[in-house]
Fold these 2 entries.
Entry 1:
Amino acid sequence: MCLSGTLEDKLAATAAAGFDGIEIFEADLVASPWAPAELAARCADLGLSIDLYQPFRDLDSTDADRFARNLRRAERKFDVMAALGTDTVLVCSSVAPDAVDDPDRLAGQLTEAATRAGERGLRIAYEALAWGRHVSTWERSWDAVRRADSPALGLCLDSFHVLSRGGDPAGFAVVPGEKLFFLQLADAPHMDMDVLQWSRHHRLFPGQGAFDLTAFLGHVLAAGYTGPLSLEVFNDVFRQADPARAAVDAMRSLLWLEEGLAVRCPELATTPAPLAPRLSGYAFTELAVDGISGPQVAGALAALGFGHTGQHRSKPVQLWEQGAARVLLNASVVRPSAAGVAEVAAIALESADPGRSAARAEAFRAPVLPRTRGAAEADLSAVAAPDGTQVFFARTGPDGWPADFLPTGTEAGLGAGITAVDHVALTQPFDSFDEAGLFYRAVLGLEPESVTEYAAPFGLVRSRAVTGPDRAVRLALSVSLLRRGEWAPGVPAPQHIAFATDDVVATARALRAAGAPLLAVPANYHDDLDARVDLAPGLLADMRECGLFYDADGRGSYLHLFTEVLGSRVFFEVVQRLDGYDGYGTLNAPVRMAAHRRLRRTAETPAPA
Ligand code: MG
Ligand code: MG
């Protein structure tokens, strides 16, 4: 249920991603034309073991006749398991009105079922559903298994069911290792909602949510568990997403978990992936442009104080520089897809060891992209991020990538006070937001920050940044909360590069004097700001004059401005961080979006005759 599709789709995706085995979910089998033995043969061909059959629901009953019928139902499922060649069935705690509450009676019924399973060489892994009628904690399920004391009965631990109820995995130490039959792992975001709905819609792969699964797994292994690590992730997006990609995402989550475990519990560690080298900033950001958008973006960069310093030796690529901020305009990439579009094609990160960065990416299932380069050109390794952006690992230096550019004779621009790239903001495709967070976390060693959600003019938007430890690399990811329909008058999937300055007011005045296409901020915004924030004298007037936005966090404040959209989805931001402000001015995004939308409306509407 982690993957979309039919059994055939799921098996192919799972095997291709390198998994050792699977659980068979009954609904998939029922819908499949394959007989159980045929399914078993296909799994064997793919190198997949069948490690569990599930779910067997509502086994126990206060009604003796119904319990007898449940045992007959179990025997039929044991027949299926025998044909599948799997020896473990998951029995989850009952949610039915006739569920048994009395601990000894429950243990007795579990023993009866386990005895029948044991006679056939099978075993039952009993799982406490977080919403079980009487058994809803792992302690209660362990109490039943302990009382039953049947060799064919053990526990299935599911991280969601334990952690969603605030359970303490340190308690697993009381369970003998041989009673831990099966382990299911799922992460989830913090949510304050009904636990069944939370589980059914919002589970995530490890490393994508808020649970401490490294600690959880450490406790399970310390208790003596030696079975498979299985992922059981019910998620509205994954249920619709390409199963091949989701399976790779899932495998990456386990590799990430394994690495975290090696740090926390070195005695449990296996083969480590290469450690993530330090990333010290953006080497460059590359925009794909065409004959329409290229001159438009180049003109804006010039007005922002950038100089066109270099021309690529073999490709139609321009290098624009100001301070340590570098932008490439590349007219040779296949993207952009439509005429007049500009979009972020690549980000290049300064890596202390680009080769090791690439080796780590491969270890985390992010294949290094094939790349054509000229004889004298720098060998830059790149991997594809989930949204298709190429991520380069680079080192800026005399014999590094800048050597690929012939000097134009123009100096790097200085005029506007831009010093570096502060962050890059990329809207993610609906299907890959959580995948992207884990990609940057695992592959690049960036840490996800907390999730922010806001009401934008055209729908709710979720935003989450991933950052390096010293904030040298900041990447702001956002996504629409719901799949978009046809009506999309806002800027579709906006992307922007934010440049840093030490004096945004001075920079803004320089940009205005140079005729930069700055985004106008409505007077209502500054009136509201004046009402809710005590700003330093004169600052509000400067902000009105310069079209600046404002935000503050517990530490400091943030002054920022935007350009208009250049080539349909890309724009620039200029930011000044004061006193350690650590956010992205997300509060102001709806105002910015409305202003961008207004310009689109103006551009689309023919002038009155
Ligand atoms: Mg295998
Ligand atoms: Mg489960």
Entry 2:
Amino acid sequence: MTKKIVVLPGDGIGPEIVAEAVKVLKKLAEQGLDISFEHGLIGGAAYDETGVPLPNETLEMAKKADAILLGAVGGYKWESLDISVRPEKGLLGIRSELNLFANLRPAILYPQLADASTLKADVVAGLDLMIVRELTGGIYFGQPRGIRTLENGEKEGFNTLVYKESEISRIGKVAFDIAAKRQGRLCSVDKANVLESTELWRETMTSLSTNYPDIELSHMYVDNAAMQLVRAPKQFDVMVTTNMFGDILSDCASMLTGSIGMLPSASLDENSKGMYEPIHGSAPDIAGQNIANPLATILSAAMMLRYTLNEAEMADRVEQAVSKVLDQGLRTADIFSEGMKKVSTSEMGDAVLAAL
Ligand code: IPM
Ligand code: MG
């Protein structure tokens, strides 16, 4: 049966990079992949058209889809809007409405890019790390939240970090299962020395581990984890953590690989329906210039093939094509170094197509 892909380009460089990933998927469609595309609005682009960052029409389309390909949301233009209609709300809304609680963020260093990392090549060479971030709970969604005025007239901002056992164990299971298919090592990251909600996180991960005797579970405080990621990142196989810690640690991990422009992600629900997006933002400063790196989005399409469309072989081929264009010395500006050939967004996409 034809699989329905909803394409949500979003803002900034979103439309440019998504176009390249769609080109790749269309090429695979010519080779037998049975997919169809539908486009929708999200983020600032949706706000400008409809007054909300996540129109109902988009949400309904996404609910009916098999998978969603998203670019990025946000930009200077919308920064002064009320938080309830900011582009980011559209992204958080679709994650939450579709129950996409499991966010997989692999940080893999392509050997060709070892020199592009700000870390020494021997610290990052061979890096292959998977961050599993809880995506629909924690402080991003906890109630109560807001900004209130105290009796003395001073304003106070507040948010709530809250996790139910069931939320912790369902993300835990995803992470243990992923670790089982890899090197079998899972590091759960928390701040259990200070925050009760993550004390429960640690307890729940520990009791879950009795079901996974072959997985080596360790625990680490988030401050130490941030330090270890830049000190000796290869000690990690799979990391599992809360929504906010995962947001921060995955940006940190991305720089190990040379550029945030290289990292894809998958956000999955209980049935492996998924939304796929690069982990980088909308980069409004370079939007419309055809210089952004489309590889994270193309690699996100590869994750879609693997996790939702059950086309592992095609996913492998896309990943190999990316590796091949890097071998050819093609580099967008963010990963450019002396002696390489600088290419535009669309030239990079074309090169991946050719390598397919
Ligand atoms: C991410 C982004 C989002 C997040 C923003 C844009 C809301 O930083 O996907 O990592 O914080 O989750
Ligand atoms: Mg982030």
